[in-house]
Amino acid sequence: MAAEGGRGVVELSSGAGCAVPPAVLEAVAADWMLEFACCCLCRHFREECTAEFRRWRDVAQALINGLSNIPTHQKKMVYLCQVLIRIGEGKELEWHFKNKERISALESALSFWTSLEKEEVKLDKLHEDIHRLLQIQAVAVHMEKGYFKEADEVLERLFTDSESDKPLRVKLKTIIKSKDPYIPFLQNFSYSHLISKIKTYIEIFMKDNETNFLMQAATKEVESKGLSAAEVQNQIMNVNESHKNSLETKQRSMEEKENITNESPGGMKKPRVRPHSQKHKGNQVLESLNNLQNVENGGDACGRKRQRWTCKEDMELKSGVREFGVGKWAKILVHGHFNNRTSVMLKDRWRTLCRMDQT
Which one of 140, 250, 255, 298 counts the least CB within 10 Å of its CB? Predict the structure, then answer.
């Protein structure tokens, strides 16, 4: 039997001594999954489904992070995923790192777009338009936030002294000095214009990559069972509801453990103020989850050694704030991936990041 993954084939045999190593099978399956994740990411970006885009963004990023090197046939796909992820957060002035230098999300997107262009058979006006829009918007989003010094620094990084760049470079330099990010010239290179061009590119990309193995397999599965779109959606909702109930059960269990730890040596419970609403109760459960995690990690608020915040943790914190809002530190902690942190640490780090952005 042959297991085919777009461009690679693994032959499986039932004969003795012909078993395929698990690592090979995992690589083929990961290839399928990355292709599928990229397809979903493109579709949700095009349809502006923010929640679903974020979900598949995390899936795609996890799969990409698992690659020790990028196979040639996956390069274009990986670069496009990275471009979409960064454009999706470009207005928020998220920071990334390149060669130990801190750059904005749109600068990072431009870097990946340049790499993607190298994988194209030929470049056309659409590629050039997107490249130019990324350059201009990388400068413009800083001006819109009032960061004119940073906008000038981005301009210096992205625009060379070449004759082709000179007219636009001079124009943008003048706009930065005027501190007016809303002049008509910039409206011709707006963020919405960039999004529109990216969507056009996605349409072309998806047409060229219609032979998606997992998508085809899913289609056959649905058709073989004769399920309608509504029935498939109901099945997905049932799975999500089951997951939600499981999470609520775990939270109740954590609350019961907290009640036990609050008992005095004589068996009498310490007095505790009852929350006045279900919302407060939910926050209390999340806090207890936070405390339990800290105990399991072998530390407490008093004896914990100070640890440097990593770039990955900063990104987790920013992502959590975008999803749950400022102040929801316990919820962000439970749903994020942090290295032995507490909700207080998250709050303090967020204040630090805000100060860094203002300097």
Answer: 298
Q: Tokens in use for 214?
A: 């997992």
> Residue 269 in 3-state DSSP?
strand
Taking the C-alpha atoms of residue 99 and residue 263, their distance in angstroms, rounded to an integer, is 53
CA count, 13 A, side-chain hemisphere, 357: 16
Which residues, listed in sequence order, are joined to residue 103 by a DSSP beta bridge?
Answer: 96
Half-sphere exposure of 150 (CA within 13 A, CB side): 20
Residue 305, classified by CB atoms within 10 Å of its CB into exposed (0-12), middle (13-18) or buried (19+), is: exposed
In the three-class reduction of DSSP (H, G, I as helix; E, B as strand; rest coil), residue 150 is classed as helix
Q: Of 281 and 24, which is predicted with more confidence?
A: 24
Among residues 98, 195, 194, 115, the alpha carbon closest in space to that of 154 is found at 98
Question: Facing residues of 102 across strands?
Answer: 97
Given its phi and psi angles, is residue 102 left (phi above 0), alpha (psi -120 to 50 degrees) or beta? beta
SS3 for 73? helix
Range in 84-98, 195-209, 261-275, 331-345 with the lowest mean pLDDT: 261-275
DSSP 109: H
Tens-digit pLDDT profile for residues 76-109: 999 999 999 999 888 777 666 665 677 888 999 9
pLDDT tens-digit profile of 268-294? 444 444 444 444 444 444 444 444 444
- Residue 213 contacts residue 6 (beta carbons within 8 Å): yes
Spatial CB neighbours of 226, under 8 Å, sequence gap ≥ 6: none
Least confident piece of the model among 252-261, 293-302, 307-316: 293-302
